[in-house]
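Because discrete structure vocabularies remain unfamiliar, we first show an illustrative case, written as a sequence plus integers encoding its fold.
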Amino acid sequence: MKRIFLILGVLFVVILIFVILRPSSQKIDAQAKLQLRELHVEFRETGSVNPRNRLEIKPPFAGRIEKILVNEGDAIKKGQIIVWMSSSERAAMVDAARAIGDEEYARWQDIYKPTPIVAPMSGFIIYRQKEPGQTVTSADAILVMADDLIIDANIDETDLRYIYIGKKLTMYLDAYPGEQFDGSIEHISYEARVLNNVTVYNVRIRPVEKPDMFRSGMTVTITVTAESKKDARSIPNNFITEKDHKKTITIKTGTEKKPVFEEKEVTTGVTDGKYTEIVTGLNDNETVVTLHQPKKVKTNSLMRNK
């Protein structure tokens, strides 16, 4: 009986040694170590170029436009004469004098002067809606002017924590995707709106330098840096597995000929979508791996039925 137990004990030790020392049948697909990286967490929003203050220039009376002294894109100053108007009465009298002759026409032109329309603020013309000779009412806009062009965007309330006055942003016009320019947030609305069942806040962004092709109504893509971290101890995302709300990695120990694989739980930090910061659970000298998963061979249904 003692000999039987002795033999069984020896067999158990031999089997245990064999299991420990035998090469692993699992193959490594990829491996990596911790690297220090600068990680940026970014999200994108869509905005549009709009005037900060948009003002329609309307005449104070009904009549006829005699002259328009400005064109779209022209810079103007407050108080500058931009349109000459004739009231309906003046237009009728001048036209009657013209029918009599040039001398009578010139006399009434001198007696009954046209009325100037002046710019109510400094800015530039963004739209010219009428032309000389057209008859207009006091409800008709002859010109549209703006004092400045900014970018309006609607930010999801879940991203509002990353936004503050003075925050720097990068943007590009959808019409010119290769022309990137910078801006800073100058205002965040205090009242929310609901767009497509999403609560959003309006944000005004001032461009640092306006591109030459800047035009009202253009669509702008805005890139917002939510988080950033320098020298983050990170690994590629494909080495991290998430299961049951836990994140794990597989590390390789042992030797190259006889590797041993161990699964460890890790705590992660900032991620940029490609790399993720490892806060705890992985040492600098440890190697993380992904293991080859053999493909399951599909059996032909016709073969199974034979």
